[in-house]
Amino acid sequence: MALSSTLCRLNLIPRPWLPYTVTTLRALKLKPHKPQLLRPMWAPLTLSSFSVSAQIHRPQDDNLIVLGIETGCDDTAAAVSSGEILSQVVSSQADLLVRYGGVAPKMAEEAHSQVIDQVVQEALNQANLSEADLSAVAVTIGPGLSLCLRVGVQKARKTAGSFNLPLIGVHHMEAHALVARLMERELQFPFMALLISGGQNLLILAQGLGQYIQLGTSIDDAIGEAYDKTAKWLGLDMRRSGGPAIEELAREGDAESIKFSIPMKQHKDCNFSYAGLKTQVRLAIESRNINAEIPISCASSQDRRSRADIAASFQRVAVLHLEERCERAIEWALKIEPSIKHLVVSGGVASNQYVRARLDQVVKKNSLQLVCPPPSLCTDNGVMVAWTGIEHFRMGRFDPPPPAVESEDFVYDLRPRWPLGEEYAEGRSEARSLRKARIHPSLTSIIQASLQQQH
């Protein structure tokens, strides 16, 4: 993989203070994909994280078994997939989120480092496999937090190097979109996807594997960040993250009681902004003298009702913003690809049942079908990484095995700011300039450049 980030040696703390939770999913039979054979892709490392080594034996698709590793933010996850889900393990950092009121990168890195070996081993144990049984290792290399990404990449390279396995660098947001293809047999390209998480909102048109048009993106805060901050300011239990806490409390409130403004009504694009809505919520909380230091469980009935009204009013407007942007994006996407039949909604916030119900109305109005992975595959997980690895491996997009022993000054390929697709011309934000500094070329542009070099 390309070398672009400085290696920082990890100080591993031996005490196992972060417990890991294990989730095993029922194996799911999939419709077999016809393998597509491409000639070797000797792409320069400066252009692509993908390359093909002619010396590597590529197993037939029926025999592919891929380990997926995800450490891009605050959960340590690993899974094994063969086109079926053979195992899934997730170590949650919920206690750290409560302690620090959000993700603290250095603490998250330390937590990843302490459990990564256990999580990967448990994923292999659940699948009744060893590393020698694997065909390849897939790992998230971006976007995400550099300190956290490094832990997963380091483990993936160590495993792949020790057992002479190909390595597949995975785009985190692409994995959220593609995991729907594992669950839904009828989902073929082209399709639309709304990816909603704590760090990013993204509306894309998926024209093919690695070929994406960005219809809209976050220009400041993502919806997941807005949910988390609102939950924190309302004194809710953050151990399950802000989304579930807000959704639960909102059921008790009047969604019309507070007239928050819908963001970016004047901007006729598909981009997202939640910073202004967060400010409106904070001011509403302050005007009602709600004290976040008093947990919701200890609040008076009147105080609880005030908090519930804010939660419900916030959720209504936050999701209305999603609906408006999706309506316009569907219109744009159908102009480009009239054959689209599906809208995939994935990412952590897609676990929210209110979000799903509202977006289902939007797609039905446009004669489309909504595809949502189960909640356990919407939040960050290793299954989506393993499956995306399988999809790219079938196309010949992978790196040769790394050396069994890395040099101490080795620089890892980490892409904390990595666009997924090329921006749609009509989708460029007029609201404010998107931050461009230190952004890696998009996955789509990298793959297009590699394909051009083959001809």
UniProtKB/TrEMBL annotation:
<comment type="subunit">
    <text>Homodimer.</text>
</comment>
<dbReference type="InterPro" id="IPR000905">
    <property type="entry name" value="Gcp-like_dom"/>
</dbReference>
<keyword id="KW-0012">Acyltransferase</keyword>
<keyword id="KW-0496">Mitochondrion</keyword>
<dbReference type="InterPro" id="IPR043129">
    <property type="entry name" value="ATPase_NBD"/>
</dbReference>
<dbReference type="GO" id="GO:0005739">
    <property type="term" value="C:mitochondrion"/>
</dbReference>
<dbReference type="GO" id="GO:0002949">
    <property type="term" value="P:tRNA threonylcarbamoyladenosine modification"/>
</dbReference>
<dbReference type="GO" id="GO:0046872">
    <property type="term" value="F:metal ion binding"/>
</dbReference>
<keyword id="KW-0479">Metal-binding</keyword>
<keyword id="KW-0808">Transferase</keyword>
<protein>
    <recommendedName>
        <fullName>Glycoprotease 1</fullName>
    </recommendedName>
</protein>
<dbReference type="InterPro" id="IPR022450">
    <property type="entry name" value="TsaD"/>
</dbReference>
<comment type="function">
    <text>Required for the formation of a threonylcarbamoyl group on adenosine at position 37 (t(6)A37) in mitochondrial tRNAs that read codons beginning with adenine. Probably involved in the transfer of the threonylcarbamoyl moiety of threonylcarbamoyl-AMP (TC-AMP) to the N6 group of A37. Involved in mitochondrial genome maintenance.</text>
</comment>
<dbReference type="Pfam" id="PF00814">
    <property type="entry name" value="TsaD"/>
</dbReference>
<keyword id="KW-0819">tRNA processing</keyword>
<feature type="domain" description="Gcp-like">
    <location>
        <begin position="84"/>
        <end position="387"/>
    </location>
</feature>
<dbReference type="InterPro" id="IPR017861">
    <property type="entry name" value="KAE1/TsaD"/>
</dbReference>
<comment type="similarity">
    <text>Belongs to the KAE1 / TsaD family.</text>
</comment>
<dbReference type="GO" id="GO:0061711">
    <property type="term" value="F:tRNA N(6)-L-threonylcarbamoyladenine synthase activity"/>
</dbReference>
